[in-house]
Amino acid sequence: MNQFTRREFLKSTLLSGASLLLLPTLLPRSVFGAASPNRRLQIAQIGCGREGRADMAGVMAHSLGRVIAVCDLDNKRLAAAKEAVIEFYQGKGEADVAVQTYHDYRDVLARPDIDGVIVSTPDHWHALVATSAALAGKHIYCQKPLTYNIAEAIALRTAVRAKKVILQAGSQQRSAHPFAAFRPASEAVRNGRVGKLATIRVGIGIDSPRGQPPAAMPVPPNLDYERWLGPAPEQPYMEGRVHPQKDPGQRGEYGRPGWITTEDFGLGMITNWGAHHIDIAQWAMGMELSGPATIEAHAEFMTGDIWTVHRDYHADMQYANGVQIVLDNKYETGLRFEGSEGWIFCSRGSVRVTSSDGAAGSDPKLSALRASDAKLLSPLPKDAVRWPASSNHYLNWLESIVANSDPVAPVDQAARSLEACAATWIGMKLKRKLTWDPAKEAFVGDPEADALRSRKPRKAEYDLDALMKKAGLA
Rounded distance, CA 335 to CA 408, Å? Predict the structure, then answer.
């Protein structure tokens, strides 16, 4: 082992897959938690709803990591997640499976034997949980969008880099599986296959009103709603603004949660799916650490309904390199890169993460990856710009922790994707042209727009700025 660098070792074992099952016994103990009995990366799942269960399963599928704890504010979901972990490992032949349940994520972070956490909470909780995890020295897999607003993204990035932990954003379109069209399309564009890139047309779909007026409901006894609200504004409980309470059954097939369509908890499709597609757009044109220079956006917002996010929208984002990103809900969901030599389109095709993922599909008769001319998608030359290898997004996170190197969707780039989407939402709210300074991560000469980069927490205990100041990072 002394003759090999860690990177060379990973290349000869992890990437080939030949010795994956032996890896936990070969790596230095310092890579893992001091109390790790089986020398695997010990992982805790925080947030056990629809995406949380999927993320947890995605990590458990790889022997390099092991889920040993689950955390949720809904006792029903917490119990179901624990059962899912036990069933998974028993299915692998284990007789006695230990998995601890937690109500408070801070108790999870206090465990020295936990190496990493999966943050699959509602968007308004991402920043507090993930930043606290970074400050505790835990590696992080964080669902997209990275945070609820721009100020939170900057704080989380600062904490991750200061503590030198590995954060993988849940931008699965950067990995080869299960959405195979995005990597070859964006690589082709990055390598000039469409000629001079002029326009990227992005469709992210829309949500429709629930058709139900807001009305207070009794809080279910299994849900800590006061804690669930966290930093969000005070308001009465409504099941349609939180998540379904129906027993999911053995398969745990939760419905799409209402918080995604309530602006106090998530900003709507502009960040929900925009975080995926804008991320790929900026990656493809080499602006993954930058952002738009100007934004003009307008949208209709739901009124008199239990849901409050935007509906129909149109946005024009102009970048300093001359490329324009146009977003419109009338476009096919996906990205169309248009240049002087033709166009390339990529999407998820008919693939959905869950059956309730909005307008995710394309025409099933059309390919998820297509171009104006087939030669635009022909194999690239040996000296072409290539994306980092990532066959699976969860495995890439685990491998990156071991290698102590950035994953395929690192925190810096995930923060920039959120910033572009959230800035567009601000444009939707203000209904006027905005000028954005990517270097300063602020609007130019516009205090009203700058004020919307953050929001005041409901209570002092949820103050992210105070957390950063206490850590000496603000």
Answer: 20
- Segment 92-127, tens digit of pLDDT: 999 999 999 999 999 999 999 999 999 999 999 999
* Residue 247 pLDDT level (bands cut at 50, 70, 90): low
Q: Which of 211, 158, 47, 214 is nearest to 415 (CA)?
A: 158
Beta strands in 340-390 (DSSP E): 342-346, 369-371
The burial of 342, by beta-carbon neighbours within 10 Å (0-12 exposed, 13-18 middle, 19 or more buried), is given as middle
Q: Which residues pair with 67 in a beta bridge?
A: 43
CA 42 to chain centre: 21
SS3 assignment, position 371: strand
Concatenated DSSP letters of 219-232: PPTTB-HHHHHTTS
Cα–Cα separations (whole angstroms), residue 369 to 185, 195, 325, 388:
7, 18, 19, 20
Q: Within 10 A of 469 (CB to CB), how many other CB atoms are there?
A: 11
Is the C-alpha dihedral spanning 319, 270, 299, 149 positive or negative? negative
Give the pLDDT band of residue 352 (cuts 50, 70, 90): low
Cα torsion 158, 283, 169, 466 to 10°: value is 20
3 state DSSP class of 198: strand
| Structure token pair of residue 109 | 């972070």
Contacts of residue 390, Cβ cutoff 8 Å, sequence gap at least 6: 174, 175, 176, 396, 407, 408
